[in-house]
From TrEMBL:
GO terms for molecular function: ATP binding; ATP hydrolysis activity. It comes from the Bacteria. Belongs to the AAA ATPase family. PROSITE patterns: AAA. Keywords: ATP-binding, Nucleotide-binding. The lineage of its organism: Bacteria, Pseudomonadati, Spirochaetota, Spirochaetia, Leptospirales. It holds the Pfam family AAA. PANTHER family: 26S PROTEASOME REGULATORY SUBUNIT. InterPro entries: 26S_Proteasome_ATPase (IPR050221), AAA+_ATPase (IPR003593), ATPase_AAA_core (IPR003959), ATPase_AAA_CS (IPR003960), CbxX/CfxQ (IPR000641), P-loop_NTPase (IPR027417). Residues 206-341 form the AAA+ ATPase domain. This is AAA ATPase central domain protein. SMART domains: AAA (SM00382).
């Protein structure tokens, strides 16, 4: 796995930038067409109209900028106008200054615009800065509630009323989830009443912290979102890997702030610490120190949540064996996600390739054995694209949807490691 420092400076693909901005727009309920994005000769430019250029927007912009990147120069800061530019980490280094990200907000001359420009490719920290700014400038939240503060800090907020795509509900796993997580979340009073009857001293018998473990692509992140939806609770998704890389050097403070913000809400929520293995101790000595500090903050904060009745922590990790034992011990329930079994695969095929007959479904399921959920999904989507290409190139529409043969062929290519098209 790449360390935070390694991923922090990696240039992003335009498609990744678009996807993140679309997601941000969807989360704050803004039409993504309103974000005018241009990328010409490696000059990046994002422009959008804002409702109002208030003093508080300008001040918040500086605060948000500072949270994401350490050093800035304020070119202009006056009523209804702000122009700032990032500087190098080393304040005395002058190279590349012209290429640093710039933010300009103007409420002058009838304008009401936010503009972010950068010469050259964007990196993670800059992208999450842009999302945070858009949330602040375009979000329709009055004042700043806790959830939008969390969103500004790089968390994703999933509300139970959000529309999300369906999933194949693997019966064994979902039964277990229902029993261990969803029922207690939905009916805490029943659990508490029983505990009051049984204990000489009342203590909670509901799970406080649940850990999802399992290889990548087995559906941990997807399931956490669905648990929230089923239980009717907001999910605060904390993508640790991204947050740690975006706030390299400040990540300890950042994590503490996120926890503190989360604990100030009164509404019940699921705090979902995704990719918690980003905190696993590193072999690199300098990073090791940093991750120890981070870990001790996390442990303290999770302990703090013990007394908080309205928050349940869900963690997800690909590598539970690498997690610190003190951290592992904080989770009272562990749910293992594995490569799907035959019945799950068949359910996935019914979900991603419903046109296949029961017989074909079974045949394909056998061949897909051993693949992760993500891989199975990928194979199904590739088969569709393959069929689409053929229809376009040969101008035929012999079949309306891929047949078993398409999936088998795509699977063979997939196993050979042919890159996706
Ligand atoms: N139960 C499911 N039904 C349908 N698709 C799923 C399901 N679980 C996961 N997926 C798909 O598989 C992909 C990988 O899942 P993800 O939750 O990201 O895995 P993980 O977090 O374990 O790495 C996702 O893009 C999602 O679309
Ligand atoms: Mg995941």
């Amino acid at each position: 796995m790449a360390t935070p420092r390694e991923t922090a400076g990696v240039p992003l693909q335009l498609s990744e930038i678009r996807a993140e901005l679309d997601r941000t727009a969807a989360e704050i309920g803004v039409d993504s067409q309103k974000l005018q994005l241009t990328f010409e000769r490696s000059d990046f430019n994002l422009r959008c109209e804002v409702e109002e250029v208030s003093d508080s927007l300008l001040i918040d912009t500086i605060a948000i900028a500072k949270r994401h990147l350490e050093n800035w120069r304020i070119h202009t800061f006056e009523k209804s106008f702000l122009s700032i530019q990032a500087l190098n980490d080393n304040l005395f280094a002058t190279e590349g200054l012209l290429e640093k990200i710039k933010i300009r907000i103007s409420g002058l001359y009838g304008e009401k615009t936010l503009e972010i420009t950068k010469k050259g490719a964007l990196v993670h920290a800059e992208l999450s800065l842009m999302s945070a700014l858009l949330r602040r400038a375009l979000g329709r939240v009055s004042g700043k509630d806790v959830l939008s503060q969390l969103a500004e800090m790089g968390c994703h907020i999933y509300r139970p009323q959000d529309k999300i795509g369906g999933i194949a509900a693997f019966s064994r796993l979902t039964a277990k989830l229902r029993e261990t997580v969803i029922l207690p979340l939905k009916n805490p009073e029943v659990y508490d009443k029983i505990a009051r009857e049984t204990r000489s001293e009342f203590s909670l018998n509901r799970p406080r912290a649940v850990l999802f473990t399992g290889p990548p692509g087995t559906g941990k992140t997807t399931m956490a979102r669905h648990v929230g939806k089923e239980a009717g609770l907001v999910v605060v998704h904390v993508p640790l890997e991204n947050i740690l890389s975006a706030y390299y050097g400040e990540s300890t403070k950042r994590l503490a702030v996120i926890f503190d913000a989360a604990t100030t809400t009164r509404e019940p929520l699921i705090l979902f610490l995704d990719e918690i293995d980003a905190l696993a101790p590193s072999r690199n000595e300098k990073l090791f120190e940093a991750s120890r500090r981070l870990l001790s903050v996390l442990l303290r904060k999770i302990d703090g949540l013990e007394t908080q009745n309205n928050i349940i922590t869900v963690g997800a990790t690909n590598r539970p064996q690498d997690l610190d034992s003190a951290l592992l011990s904080r989770f009272d329930t562990i749910l293992e996600f594995n490569e799907p079994q035959q019945e799950d695969i068949q359910e996935l095929i019914r979900f991603y390739a419903k046109q296949l007959s029961a017989g074909d479904n079974e045949k394909l399921a056998q061949q897909l054995s051993g693949l992760s959920v993500r891989a199975i999904r990928d194979v199904c989507l590739r088969a569709e694209r393959q069929l689409a290409r053929e229809q376009i190139e040969k101008s035929t529409t012999a079949v309306a949807a891929p047949t078993l043969e398409y999936y088998v062929r795509t699977l063979a290519e997939y196993r050979l490691g042919r890159p996706a098209d």
